[in-house]
């Protein structure tokens, strides 16, 4: 059997290659494929390291290729009369059909193989994910198999090749169009989803993404099986007598009908299954990760996932609805009954629409759509509700999608990272629902409160009252802790002060004082200890019972894994944002605030009083300028308490002095000496790197005797594009991020000798082609310096741009008095003011005494993260990055999110945050390099076609020699 099928396939292939027809078809296919890849989809303008543009047109290109290959297979046999010879040959009809089918598939496989140079070349231009490439080639073969079966059946029904060609084109186009966005936009979501299950192109899109689904595989195999069965039946029927019908003929018809019915019916049965799916993408982007399952496992109450999708929506959004439904159903399966997934159309149920509008503030969004006759607005729902207890989060289409401008100006719309968005929302409502009543439920080990308190007679009067309130709060917490909480009190000044020496050495706790003039020294520090973890309980801003409860519960929440964490942002002061007024000047960080707010509680922190709020888990200091001693003390003591401080700072700040000029100004942060005490220095230079992100810069060109100044998007060296080679692949902060842009960064120098007992993790480096300049000129001059715009005036080498230092730090205020204590002169002025006549000054409330101390040494958990740029997180810079049409600015925000989650030891979202469709961009290339790769692909396709021709000629020569030897014998 195999021999007869193979012989038929060889005969058909040799027939094709014996004439120029096969090479013409293959050549046209390659020309059109390369044209669509580089010119229609504009691969280099798109700037994404994938080969999806090559396969986007594959469902259409294969229709023409397969129709041309199959049109003669049976029609020519019938026209020339050789069909009678085949009918009388000792070969079964099914063997003939399979032989011709394999011959056509062999030609298609050769055509696809000739395009392999494209993904290979793309892998050298960027970080290519080979999973979707394998899926795309597999999908192309399956799609070609279905088209080939259709073409063979049509060819078997008539003896005219042109008619066979036209009918095959029509039938295949119908299968393609029925699942397309064009047809889907004319009907509702439900019908569009049904049609997508029938369309060959819509099924191909799933495989093209790298997700191999048994339902898609079987669809193509069943379509191939149906038309091959019809082909066998059509050829077998030619043997029958027209005038005579017998029992065998009826039996064959029933067998054919049952076989086709079963092949089709199995699609309906498989439509509801999800048990066989293979995710070929790197990092398994379309599979629920263990991190998401871990979040779901923490659920104690039912979780509701509800999708609000209108039947009529924007054509670009409609294909995303089935993907959202599939993933939400997988969450329901993973939840094991604790997760309920629902999908509703609010327009069909007024009660649901009223609830969505009133309770969840979910409202329809107007989308502009156009059809053959008119352009109109459609008010559509495209939202997801995540509800847990009395907490809920909503995700709109803006939260869910990424938009990429294609080379032809068309928009590519994809789900940004649906699993991350859903898991983040689930995590936020889960942690937000937790209360202090069940605070200890998530703790695996008991918690000990250790209070280092001096004896009552040594404590100031304010602290004595506060100590009483604090102990009452601790007793209340102990009663509700189910035996997991135990307060312990120790007097450091008892027993000769041995404990005082111990805690000074271990924790850096120094005696406290009320003022510089007060000789009384006392201790009032407290810690929470659970296993190996320790968290300091800070003194509240107001010494009340409520303040004590807030302070202790805040520390407990930092120990517990099941609570929302709080990020403290320290930013330059700007006027309040008013959407109806022009944007105020200065650096603004609203995009970063919004991004961090998606998964954490974000508070703006004012350090002017020298303290930080007691509920802050990580302190993020952005673009600091002229920090006072009090502000510096607040940062220093937060680090000494074992917290994490992230700094975004540089000696330079960049401003636009006019429409066409950029200027770097010297900036004094006030943290320079503080960082030096930690062995960290930021040089007063700006790093320049040829591997850079484009920026709209002024460009002068000659137009006759005149000089024309215009704005062009050109590579801008101070926008350092840190690629995978410059990112630390072993750090959780940067491991899964493809690239990050550092804007106007400065070199970071860390003294290994000063930090020998601390752990240093270098996060980002510029490329080997970069240098650092001391010049403040950041305006490129392409006339003088050529294509780079800047002259090389520094040592060319990689420069460190970001790093983490972990371990024990010594306070910069060690051996010094706290800056919160008022100096002697100020005390005397206050005393004189008190003695002044009452008529000269209005009555004032007596000031609270300042109770402060200096923690001289940090805990081991202290972490300092430094990024050497004042600008890379500002709204203005992120907007410039977004102007290029890419989503690379999201990577910058992801770095900060990763720092927050890493510092809070909450890695659940770290592993899935960087997934996305548009994250892997091409490496920076010059125009000459782009031209090289483009012509390389043309040459590779041509050489491949020439190789096929030479192999055929060599095989033909061997066949002639063999036949001649047989004749000679």
Description:
Helices cover 44% and strands 18% of the residues. It has 969 residues and is an alpha+beta fold. It has a seven-stranded mixed sheet with strand order 16-15-17-18-30-29-27, with helices on both faces. A four-stranded mixed sheet has the order 4-3-7-8. A four-stranded mixed sheet has the order 12-11-13-14, with helices on one face. The chain folds into four domains: 2-279, no CATH class; 297-434, Glutaredoxin, CATH 3.40.30; 446-561, Glutaredoxin (3-Layer(aba) Sandwich), CATH 3.40.30.10; 566-575 and 587-820 and 851-905, Rossmann fold, CATH 3.40.50. The protein is elongated. It has 33 helices and 30 strands.
| Rg from Cα | 36 Å
Helical percentage = 40-55%
CATH-scheme architecture of the largest domain: 3-Layer(aba) Sandwich
Text of the CATH class of the largest domain: Alpha Beta
Largest sheet: 7 strands, mixed
Biggest sheet, spatial arrangement of strands: 16-15-17-18-30-29-27
Q: In total, how many domains does the architecture comprise? A: 4
Number of strands: 30
CATH topology of the largest domain: Rossmann fold
Query: What is the strand content?
Result: 15-25%
Low-confidence stretches: 838-846
Overall pLDDT, averaged?
85
Could you say which overall geometry the principal axes of the C-alpha atoms support?
A: elongated
- Quaternary status: single chain
């Amino acid at each position: 059997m195999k021999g007869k099928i193979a012989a038929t396939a060889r005969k058909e292939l040799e027939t094709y290659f014996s004439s120029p027809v096969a090479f013409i078809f293959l050549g046209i296919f390659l020309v059109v494929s390369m044209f669509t890849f580089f010119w229609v989809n504009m691969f280099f303008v798109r700037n994404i390291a994938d080969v999806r543009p090559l396969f986007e047109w594959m469902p259409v290109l294969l229709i023409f290729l397969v129709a041309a290959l199959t049109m003669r297979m049976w029609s020519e046999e019938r026209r020339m009369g050789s069909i009678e010879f085949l009918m009388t040959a000792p070969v079964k009809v099914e063997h003939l059909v399979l032989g011709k089918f394999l011959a056509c598939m062999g030609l298609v496989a050769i055509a696809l193989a000739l395009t392999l140079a494209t993904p290979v070349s793309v892998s050298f231009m960027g970080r290519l994910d080979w999973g979707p490439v394998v899926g795309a080639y597999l999908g192309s073969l399956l799609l070609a198999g279905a088209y080939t079966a259709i073409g063979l059946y049509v060819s078997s029904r008539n003896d005219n090749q042109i008619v066979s060609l036209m009918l095959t084109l029509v039938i295949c186009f119908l299968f393609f169009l029925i699942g397309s966005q064009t047809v889907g936009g004319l009907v509702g979501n439900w019908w569009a989803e049904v049609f997508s299950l029938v369309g060959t192109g819509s099924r191909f899109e799933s495989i093209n993404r790298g997700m191999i689904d048994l339902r898609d595989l079987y669809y193509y195999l069943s379509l191939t099986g149906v038309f091959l069965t019809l082909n066998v039946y059509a050829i077998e029927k030619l043997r029958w007598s027209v005038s005579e019908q017998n029992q065998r003929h009826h039996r064959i018809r029933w067998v054919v009908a049952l076989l086709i019915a079963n092949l089709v019916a199995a699609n309906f049965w498989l439509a509801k299954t999800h048990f066989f799916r293979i995710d070929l993408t790197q990092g398994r982007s379309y599979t629920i990760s263990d991190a998401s399952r871990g979040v779901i496992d923490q659920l104690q109450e039912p979780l509701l996932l509800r999708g609000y999708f209108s039947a009529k929506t924007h054509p670009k959004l409609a294909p995303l609805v089935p993907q959202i439904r599939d993933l939400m159903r997988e969450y329901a399966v993973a939840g094991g009954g604790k997760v309920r997934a629902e999908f509703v159309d609010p327009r069909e149920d007024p009660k649901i629409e009223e609830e969505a509008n009133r309770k969840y503030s979910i409202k329809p969004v107007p989308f502009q759509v156009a059809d053959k006759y008119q352009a109109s607005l459609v008010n559509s729902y495209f939202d997801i509700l995540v509800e847990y207890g009395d907490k809920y989060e909503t995700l709109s289409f803006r939260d869910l999608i990424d938009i990429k401008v294609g080379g032809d100006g068309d928009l590519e719309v994809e789900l940004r990272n649906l699993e991350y968005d859903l898991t983040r929302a689930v995590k936020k409502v889960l942690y937000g629902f937790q209360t202090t009543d069940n605070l200890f439920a998530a703790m695996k080990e008991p918690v000990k409160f250790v209070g280092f308190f001096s004896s009552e007679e040594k404590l100031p009067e304010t602290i004595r009252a506060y100590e009483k309130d604090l102990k009452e709060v601790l007793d209340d917490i102990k009663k509700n802790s189910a035996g997991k909480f135990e307060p312990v009190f120790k007097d450091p000044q008892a027993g000769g002060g041995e404990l005082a020496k111990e805690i000074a050495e271990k924790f850096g706790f120094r005696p406290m004082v009320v003022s510089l003039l007060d000789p009384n020294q006392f201790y009032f520090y407290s810690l929470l200890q659970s296993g190996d973890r320790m968290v300091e309980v800070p003194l509240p801003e107001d010494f009340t019972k409520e303040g004590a409860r807030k302070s202790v519960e805040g520390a407990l929440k930092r120990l517990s894994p099941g609570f929302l964490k709080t990020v403290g942002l320290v930013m330059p002061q700007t006027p309040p944002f008013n959407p109806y007024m022009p944007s105020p000047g200065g650096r603004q960080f609203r995009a970063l605030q919004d991004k961090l707010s998606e998964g954490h509680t974000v508070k703006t922190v004012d350090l002017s009083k020298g303290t930080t709020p007691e509920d802050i888990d990580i302190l993020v200091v952005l673009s600091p300028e002229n920090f006072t001693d009090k502000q510096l003390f607040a940062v220093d003591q937060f680090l000494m308490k074992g917290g994490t401080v992230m700094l975004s700072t540089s000696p330079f700040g960049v401003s636009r002095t006019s429409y066409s000029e950029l200027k770097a100004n010297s900036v004094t942060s006030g943290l320079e000496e503080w960082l030096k005490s930690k062995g960290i220095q930021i040089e007063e230079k700006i790093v320049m790197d040829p591997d850079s992100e484009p920026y709209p810069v002024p460009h002068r060109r000659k137009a006759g005797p005149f000089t024309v100044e215009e704005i062009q998007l050109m590579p801008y060296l101070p926008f350092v594009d840190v690629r995978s080679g410059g990112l630390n692949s072993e750090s959780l902060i940067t491991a899964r991020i493809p690239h990050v842009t550092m804007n106007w960064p400065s070199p970071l120098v860390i003294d290994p000798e000063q930090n020998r007992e601390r752990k240093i993790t270098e996060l980002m480096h510029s490329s080997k082609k970069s240098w650092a300049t001391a010049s403040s000129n950041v305006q490129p001059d392409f006339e003088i310096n050529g294509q780079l715009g800047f002259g090389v005036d520094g040592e060319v080498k990689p420069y460190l741009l970001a790093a983490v230092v972990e371990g024990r730090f010594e306070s910069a205020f060690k051996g010094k008095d706290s800056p919160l204590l008022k100096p002697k002169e100020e005390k005397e002025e206050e005393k004189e003011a008190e003695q002044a006549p009452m008529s000269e000054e209005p009555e004032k409330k007596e000031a609270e005494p300042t109770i402060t101390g200096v923690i001289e040494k940090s805990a081991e958990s202290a972490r300092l993260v430094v990024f050497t740029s004042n600008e890379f997180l500002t709204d203005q810079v992120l907007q410039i990055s977004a102007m290029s049409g890419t989503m690379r600015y999201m990577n910058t925000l992801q770095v900060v999110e990763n720092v927050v989650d890493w510092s809070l030891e909450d890695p659940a979202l770290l592993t899935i945050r960087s997934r996305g469709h548009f994250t892997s961009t091409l490496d920076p290339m010059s125009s000459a390099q782009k031209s090289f790769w483009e012509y390389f692909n043309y040459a590779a396709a041509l050489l491949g076609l020439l190789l096929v021709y030479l192999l055929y000629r060599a095989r033909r020569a061997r066949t002639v020699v063999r036949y001649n030897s047989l004749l000679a014998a």
